[in-house]
Amino acid sequence: MAAEFLVDLYIHVMLLFALLTLLFVFYGSGVETTETKNKFSDAIQSAVNSVDPATMAVVLSPANVNVLRQMRLLYAKSDEAVVEHNLWVNALPFIILAVLAMLLGTAYFATAPARRIELSPIFKENLVILAFVAVFEFAFFKLIVLQYSPSLPSALKSEFRQSILDYKP
Predict the structure, then answer these.
(1) HEC sequence for the chain
(2) Has residue 66 been placed in a domain?
(3) CA distances in angstroms from 116 to 3, 9, 53, 98, 159, listed in the order given
(4) Which of 24, 53, 75, 108 could form a disulfide with 28 if both were Cys (CB 3.0 to 4.6 A apart)?
(5) Looking at the 3D structure of the chain, how many domains does it have?
(6) Cα–Cα distance between 33 and 27 in angstroms, integer?
(7) What's the predicted TM-score (pTM) here?
(8) Domain boundaries, position 149
(9) For position 132, what pLDDT does the model report?
(10) Is residue 108 part of a domain?
């Protein structure tokens, strides 16, 4: 009985880990990227709108327009270190999941056939439970997490505006 409970717990944790991995890799990371870009874009637009016209005339003068274009081209590219880092962040949960599955498989096949616990009903029960958890987790993410603002747009706006004002060529 204790062995069956431990196997059930192990499978439950493994499936929950898989669910959260899939939610993050295929949904959460993209939403996070989009939301961060949108917040930053809104903050920049707000900061630009609050700069007085004389300062904007200097910033947008013909001499600076080429610099601004070069900066846009430079910063439009993804930072390769960030791309590589995110690749590993996305791959690591799948590697962990593979190791967990291999450990379960090894333990199952190392056990004598007469003492093996039937895994099929345990997987089915846990999949049904996790299907319900997935629905609520997704709803929580959509309704609550996406509404959270990690930094105040006013702080971003203020910082951006001050950077423009403090710029010395």
Answers:
(1) CHHHHHHHHHHHHHHHHHHHHHHHHHHHHHHHHHHHHHHHHHHHHHHHHHCCHHHHHHHCCHHHHHHHHHHHHHHHCCCHHHHHHHHHHHHHHHHHHHHHHHHHHHHHHHCCHHHCCCHHHHHHHHHHHHHHHHHHHHHHHHHCHHHCCCCCHHHHHHHHHHHHHHCCC
(2) no
(3) 10, 16, 77, 21, 62
(4) 24
(5) 1
(6) 10
(7) 0.66
(8) 2-52+90-166
(9) 92
(10) yes
The label of the residue with tokens 């949960």 reads: 93
Is residue 130 domain-resident? yes
Please name the amino acid found at residue 44: I
Taking only the tens of pLDDT, the chain with its 169 residues reads: 688 888 888 999 999 999 889 888 888 888 878 877 777 777 777 777 777 888 777 777 887 777 778 777 777 777 788 889 888 988 999 999 999 999 998 988 888 787 788 889 999 999 999 999 989 988 988 888 777 766 666 666 677 677 777 776 6
Q: What residues contact 133, with CB distance under 8 A and at least 6 apart?
A: 16, 19
